[in-house]
Amino acid sequence: MKFVRLLSLPLLATALLAPLSAQPVKTPVIKAVEPSRVAFVNSGAFSEPATGIKQLVKVLQGLELEFSSQQSELSLLQEKLRTVAGELAKLRAEATPNTKAIEEKQTAGLALQQELQQKSQAAQQAYGQRQQEAQGPVSAEIGKELHAFATARDITLLFDLAKLGDGLIDAKPEADLTADFIAYYNAKHP
Predict the structure, then answer these.
(1) Of 5 and 123, which is predicted with more confidence?
(2) pLDDT value at position 1?
(3) Taking residues 140-146, what's their average pLDDT?
(4) Is 176 exposed, middle or buried (0-12, 13-18, 19+ CB in 10 A)?
(5) Is residue 25's pLDDT more than 80?
(6) Whole-number Å distance between alpha carbons of 84 and 82
(7) CA angle 43, 46, 50 (to 5 degrees)
(8) Which of 159, 162, 124, 169 is nearest to 48 (CA)?
């Protein structure tokens, strides 16, 4: 009886597993990947006065000139605030500090600090808005030209090094197309 049970166990296993092994084994479909060409540009170099994109440099210089008076005013306010802080420190260092003079300098310093903060925020907001108005069309054109540049050179992936930060660990110098793109753009948009 034991012999029959031992003999029937392998037959039963074979009978149960036979339909499974008769089915064809499905192999995973592997999609063929074409070789890719990868390159990068550094958009930070686009704004360099000597070697950058001329259109962009011109816009940035115009913005700098346009907001130079606000920058001068903010620098003057910062200097006045430093002067008040220095005078306040001298008043406090006296052997017999004049509390009324100290309070007046503190009040004047706080008023200057608030004025500086308000004018600085207003200038930053105005500059940001004006920069978007002036630089926006040039940046859009640069984006279009980058796409055309990459397509013409059959580049599959084009990275911007300025936006990657420390994301790019190593690359061959031949993969840097910054100077080539700047020359390409400046030739098309003199």
Answers:
(1) 123
(2) 47
(3) 95
(4) middle
(5) no
(6) 5
(7) 150
(8) 162
